[in-house]
Amino acid sequence: MYLINLQSAVSVQGLGRQIENRWLWRDLSFELYSGERVAVLGASGTGKSLLLRALAGFDTVQSGEIIFGGKSINSHFRPDYRSQIIYLHQRPGLWEGTVEENLQQVYRLATHRHKVYNRQLIVEYLHLLHRDADFLQRQVSAIFGGEGQILAFLRALQLLPKVLLLDEPTASLDESTANSLEALVAAWLDDDPQRAYLWTSHDSNQLQRLTSSPPYRGTGIPKNHFFLDFLVVPLRAFGTSLAVSDPGSTPAQAVSVPRLSTGTVLERSQS
């Protein structure tokens, strides 16, 4: 049995999003801790994608703030921020040319010019995806199905971000490709204890694979007012504290670390 000293990767404080004078969600507060694998669930139209886009710095919010690296994301140079917190969705935009040229093109952007393309890392990632280095020479115009999404994942992960925001990225893929991309993200997470991700999906079996703990459920909240049904986190929760135990052991004593500022949005499931 062991305890973990958790560090916040992203802090969400009183966040609210309004569209045409209607609040999709508000007073939303939570911490995404380093090493966490968090799933966001909710009915269609309740704002899951908008939350991830807000966290990525693409969309504005009407209240609250997002803290990364100890300061508001509004204080960050936005391109630098987006290289550390990367948003992936179902329909990636790709450049013309080969797969490898697409991967290298990223390093021509001003934000990434100080970085160096690491072909060996890409080959290792391809191995996890059951593909060889020949894939890099494929023309983007000739790739099909889930191969475009594989390219998008490789292009993002090579930048070694701290947080991934995954907006149903495998929804249109076959099971084999989806499983391979899940394994790739797991490997990325395991490479650095400071990393974390948020993942949305309508596939309950997938979310069970991606996370491993009981949910936090919204209770007594109008579903047309607040988007969040529940967050699933990988640690056992006791009130507002956390404990982690070895597989098969009894739960550890709770660590005195706040887990979720529930406000009016979230509370721990009693099920």
Looking at CATH, which topology would you report?
Answer: Rossmann fold
Domain tally? 1
Biggest β-sheet, characterized?
Answer: 7 strands, mixed
Radius of gyration: 19 Å
N- to C-terminal distance: 24 Å
What is the architecture at the second tier of CATH?
A: 3-Layer(aba) Sandwich
Strand fraction equals: 15-25%
CATH superfamily: P-loop containing nucleotide triphosphate hydrolases
Strand order in the largest sheet: 6-7-8-3-10-9-13
> How large is the count of helical segments?
7
| SSE series | EEEHEEHEHHHEHEHEEEEE
Helix content: 10-25%
Given the helix and strand composition, which structural class is it?
alpha+beta
Number of strands: 13
Shape: globular
CATH class category name: Alpha Beta
Q: Which stretches are low in confidence, meaning pLDDT under 50 for 5 or more residues running?
A: 213-271
Round the mean pLDDT to the nearest integer and report it.
76
Search tags:
alpha+beta; Rossmann fold; seven-stranded mixed β-sheet; four-stranded antiparallel β-sheet; 7 helices; 24% strand; disordered C terminus
Secondary structure topology:
Blueprint: E1 8-19, E2 22-33, E3 37-41, H1 48-55, E4 63-68, E5 71-72, H2 78-84, E6 85-88, H3 99-105, H4 119-128, H5 147-157, E7 163-167, H6 175-190, E8 196-200, H7 204-210, E9 215-217, E10 230-232, E11 236-238, E12 241-243, E13 267-268
Parallel strand pairs: 3-8, 6-7, 7-8
Antiparallel strand pairs: 1-2, 1-4, 3-10, 4-5, 9-10, 9-13, 11-12
